[in-house]
Amino acid sequence: MEKIKMITPLVEMDGDEMTRVLWQIIKDELILPFIDLKSEYYDLGLEYRNETNDQVTVDSANATKKYGVAVKCATITPNAARMTEYDLKEMWKSPNGTIRAMLDGTVFRTPIQVKGIEPCVKNWKKPITIARHAYGDVYKSVELKVPGAGKAELVFTGADGKEERVTIHEFTGAGIIQGQHNVDESIESFARSCFNYALDLKQDLWFATKDTISKKYDHTFKDIFQEIFDAEYKEKFEQAGITYFYTLIDDAVARVMKSEGGFIWACKNYDGDVMSDMISSACGSLAMMTSVLVSPAGIYEYEAAHGTVQRHYYKHLKGEETSTNSVATIFAWSGALRKRGELDQLPELMTFADRLEKACIDTIESGKMTKDLALITTLENPTVLNSEEFIKAIRSTLEAYYA
Ligand code: NAP
Ligand code: MG
After folding, report:
1. Would you state the pLDDT for residue 286?
2. What residue owns the CA closest to ligand 1's atom 43?
3. Ligand 1 pocket: which of 44, 286, 321, 364 to mutate (most atoms within 8 A of CB)
4. Residue bearing the CA closest to ligand 1, atom 40
5. Measured distance CA(386)–CA(371) in Å, rounded
6. 312 CA distance to ligand 2 middle (Å)
7. Whole-number pLDDT of residue 371
């Protein structure tokens, strides 16, 4: 077969440990034999980040801004143990944090559903995508332990020196207080990213907060979403045959459990943190969850939702066999290639992305899978493959479609 041609390069961000090992095998077995790959390669492996004083992370984010689509391997976020392990000059920041801050985006996470790995919630027929606002609220809050009786106040001093003041509580004894914030600009870009993504997927968008109780804070989220929807998206949604639906967070949770799935659920930062773990574990495995960062400017960065699978890597280093699931990383590639195909109008590249995903699903549904899935599948007598065998099995499935 003639290899599929590309026009614009894909920004390729390599990573660490077991996922770095998988990255190379995925490229060798599933990408390079089929595609005349055009990519701009950035090595975000911790060694090279350290060597370049993390400049490579910044460069890769700038390249993503320039070209519009990136595919990223999982990377180590250094902690004290990594400082010694990699003899680091500094405890470099999380690459995902750096990239997110530069692209200003929303993270969308979707479980990959296959027959034989059934969600615990029986009526979920289609995947539910969580759209998590990645700025502010409790994650940027300040807190105080109140030692005893006294008055707590919220004070805002404007740039013009004007003061606004509200009493939080007149304490008669010890207690606690917390100050949270968010900014309109970030909420606006969160809203636009969600509306754009819903149009992309042609799926309904749900959004929920607790605006009945939080009449200013949460209500502002609700209002900003509604204003932007009415002004910029209402007609586009009608044309696409999808709806925007706002409700209270507790009502949303109840409806999600009773739903068939197949929609996007926009969540404030904390709700998204909690609900995405609920959705992914109810769907079986973190190794079957895709993740994409979408910026309001229409820039896309695809990755797996899991980390570098350190425990498996140490086994691999000792020469032991591993059975690490590469599906989420393969879907990062297919997602990025499909988006590149869409932007550059390359139908063959889009078809390839669809087939690559179908090959993963068909391979698992035929009973060939990695250990994490074999432990939870409802299929009888699954064949457990090692990391490399599993990718090669997907290649055989994929080759059969092109034969
Ligand atoms: P992890 O890599 O997600 O792995 C945690 C455990 O989940 C593994 O030990 C494994 O369980 C299971 N698992 C995850 N992915 C799997 C896969 N593809 N196939 C099979 N099993 C899988 O999290 P971690 O070990 O806590 O973190 C390791 C490193 O990843 C850290 O340095 C962290 O900073 C980094 N990290 C990066 C990202 C990112 O780049 N997006 C995200 C999270 C963490 P068993 O051991 O039971 O088989
Ligand atoms: Mg969490």
Report:
1. 82
2. 307
3. 286
4. 74
5. 8
6. 21
7. 95
**E strand map for 195-351:** 205-209, 244-248, 264-267, 289-294, 300-304
Q: Calculate how far, in angstroms, residue 144's C-alpha sits from the geometric centre of ligand 1.
A: 34
Show contacts of 341-344: CB within 8 Å, 24+ apart: 343/8, 343/68, 343/69, 344/6, 344/7, 344/8
- Considering only CA atoms, which of 317, 261, 328, 257 is closest in space to residue 291? 328
Out of 47, 309, 311, 331, mutate this one to test ligand 1's pocket (max ligand atoms within 8 Å of CB): namely 309
Distance, CA 322 to ligand 2 centroid (Å)?
A: 26
At position 243, the amino acid (one-letter code) is T
Q: What are phi and psi of 135, to 5 degrees?
A: -135, 140
* Block residue for tokens 């595609």: 35
Question: What phi-psi label fits residue 367: left (phi over 0), alpha (psi between -120 and 50 degrees) or beta?
Answer: left
Which residues line the pocket of ligand 1, CB cutoff 6 A? 74-77, 96, 286-287, 303, 306-311, 324-325, 372
Task: Report the separation in Å between the CA atom of 102 and the middle of ligand 2, taken as the mean of its atom positions.
Answer: 22
| Confidence tier at 103 by pLDDT (50, 70, 90) | confident
Q: How far is the CA of 272 from the centre of ligand 2 (A)?
A: 8
Residue 132 has pLDDT above 90, yes or no: yes
What is the atom index within ligand 1 of the atom nearest the CA of 94? 34
DSSP class per residue in 282-294: HTS-GGGEEEEEE
Round the CA-based radius of gyration of the chain to a whole number and report it: 23
Decide if 9 contacts 40 (C-beta within 8 A): yes
Atom of ligand 1 nearest to the CA of 324: 19
- 246 forms bridges with which residues in the sheet? 207
Reduced to 3 DSSP states, what percent helix, strand and coil does the chain have, rounded to the nearest 5?
45, 20, 35
Checking if the pLDDT of 154 tops 80, the result is yes
Please report the pLDDT score of residue 281 as a whole number: 84
